[in-house]
Amino acid sequence: MQKEFEYSTGVIGYPILFVLIIWIIYWLEVRFHMDLNSHGIYPRSAEGILGIFTSPFLHSSLEHLYHNSIPLFVLSAATFYFYRKIAWQVILIGMLFTGILTWIIARSGNHIGASGLIYVLFSFTMFKGIFSRHYRLIALSFMVIFLYGSMLWYVFPIKERMSWEGHLAGFIVGLVFAIVYRKSIAKPKRFKWEEPDYDEEDDPFMKHFDENGNFIEKLHEQEPPNPEVRITYTIRKDTNQTD
After folding, report:
1. Across residues 77-84, what is the average pLDDT?
2. Which pLDDT does position 212 carry in this prediction?
């Protein structure tokens, strides 16, 4: 049985690292007047293949970077906490597949930003909780929908100069991962009475209750026996005694 959800330094540490990396890269671009945005995804072109690996770390503006930082931190932290054993697979493989799918289906242009990965995490955490039928994960799904449900609109072409194809690719990849990993969940602890072979009559605790539900502090079989005390006197004649 897997351990139930546990906190570790990685739950916060890794998301902070992700956000820090994309901010440092943006700072380097501004500070040294570098143009790294040209290394994005150019669909169906050889030069755009490199962008599959680099595009999540590139952002066109400070506003673009800011809008991606908060959901990236929140959703990645939730993934590391609730799905610790598969978190790295979801993030790394999800980022790769999202880039590949974007390269295949996107319109001509330069596609950059961490939003594809964000949509992977958004879709994965939302559907995974529903598929798992675990009360905590279902609660997480509703929380994700409450916080970021409006993101669903941006998988459609409703805004110019936005890579809705990257959003759609990430959403699809997250859904696929939720299906593939639907059985990889932290199982809740089961009490003894929840086991299928539980027998109430063999439970020492339940024996302390009578048929009316009254608690019996001391069972008859637990009362110590009261053995009969027998004292035997032996009188021995002293043969050395003289009259």
Report:
1. 92
2. 65
Burial class of residue 125, CB neighbours in 10 A (0-12, 13-18, 19+): buried
Token pair of 128 as six digits: 């995974």
- Residue partners of 13: CB distance under 8 A and separation at least 6: none
Question: Would you state the pLDDT for residue 115?
Answer: 96
**pLDDT for res 165:** 96
Q: 218: buried, middle or exposed (CB in 10 Å: 19+, 13-18, 0-12)?
A: exposed
Q: Which amino acid is at 98?
A: T
Residues 6+ apart with CB under 8 A from 209: 215, 216
Please tell me the CATH code under which domain 9-180 is placed: 1.20.1540.10
Provide CB contacts within 8 A for 81, sequence distance 6+. Answer: 5, 7, 11
| 200 vs 31, higher pLDDT | 31
Task: Tell me the domain boundaries of the chain.
Answer: 9-180
> What pLDDT score was predicted for residue 182?
80
Contact partners, residue 76, CB within 8 Å, separation at least 6: 14, 15, 18, 87, 91, 121
Question: Is residue 13's pLDDT more than 60?
Answer: yes
